[in-house]
Specification:
7 helices, rod-shaped, alpha+beta
Length: 249
């Protein structure tokens, strides 16, 4: 969460005007007290690391007979599915596609298993196990990290809430400086919001100096999403006595 100072506007009294028409119009409303308010702009940030990892597992076989190619792929495919079941991977997170073609008199059978993990430790354990147990005809991809739609919506809301919290804190500090109390909120509006992917400053510092292939932690850092929101908020400015009474009630 970050806090960036911006605009502050405070109104602590009525304004005078020389316009006779406005004076005559306002005379009818002399019984209505002038509302004193404080207006602030503030920003807030929220960070979300990836909460999903997808892995592709490709099984292939080349045989002169189509039945032999299918049987060879089926045995290893069953072993992969059983491994996923043993590690409590949900069926809804697994997709399987199969494709067979004939090239130069040889049948090439290929099956692809797509798996989505919510537990990164389980993802690494499954991938390592399959690489160790199966031969080179089975290719296990590196994890691809991403965010669920639910996670993205949550971090966007959190960024806005952080901005509103910063706005209220800023208004409260200004009210104290003016020896006034902060009353009820009058207006809260989100003006801007933008997001980007990439490592946070702390993640950049931890990865500094690392050379060679990208590590899994670096991939996670590169997929991290930061959301920044800017809000406008106005609050009623009240006397300290009135503010204390509101707090008691």
């Amino acid at each position: 969460m970050s806090f960036h100072p911006s605009h502050v506007l405070a109104s602590t009294g009525t304004q005078c005007t020389d316009n006779k028409d406005k004076i005559s119009t306002n005379r009818a409303n002399l019984s209505v007290p002038k509302l004193r308010e404080i207006q602030v702009w503030a920003t807030g940030e929220a960070v979300l690391t990836p909460d999903r990892a997808s892995v592709r597992i490709v099984v292939s076989s080349k045989k002169e007979q189509a039945s032999e190619a299918k049987s060879s792929v089926a045995r290893r495919l069953d072993y992969i599915v059983q491994t996923l079941h043993t590690h409590n991977v949900k069926e809804g997170d697994v997709t399987i596609t199969k494709f067979i073609q004939r090239l130069e008199g040889v049948y090439n059978m290929e099956a692809e298993v797509g798996v989505v993990f919510v537990d990164f430790d389980k993802c690494q354990a499954v991938c390592n196990f399959l690489v160790e147990k199966l031969d080179e005809s089975v290719l296990v991809s590196q994890p691809n990290y991403f965010h669920s739609s639910h996670g993205l919506e949550g971090v966007r809301r959190q960024a806005c809430l952080n901005a509103v919290q910063n706005a209220r804190q800023k208004a409260l500090e200004v009210a104290r400086l003016l020896r006034q109390g902060l009353g009820r909120p009058l207006t809260i509006r989100e003006d801007q919001s933008h997001e980007w992917e990439g490592p946070t400053p702390s993640q950049q510092d931890s990865a500094a100096g690392n050379e060679g292939p990208m590590t899994l932690q670096q991939k996670i850092a590169n997929a991290t999403v930061t959301v920044s929101a800017k809000v406008f908020a106005s609050f009623e400015l009240v006397s300290r006595d009135k503010s204390k009474q509101q707090q008691r009630t």
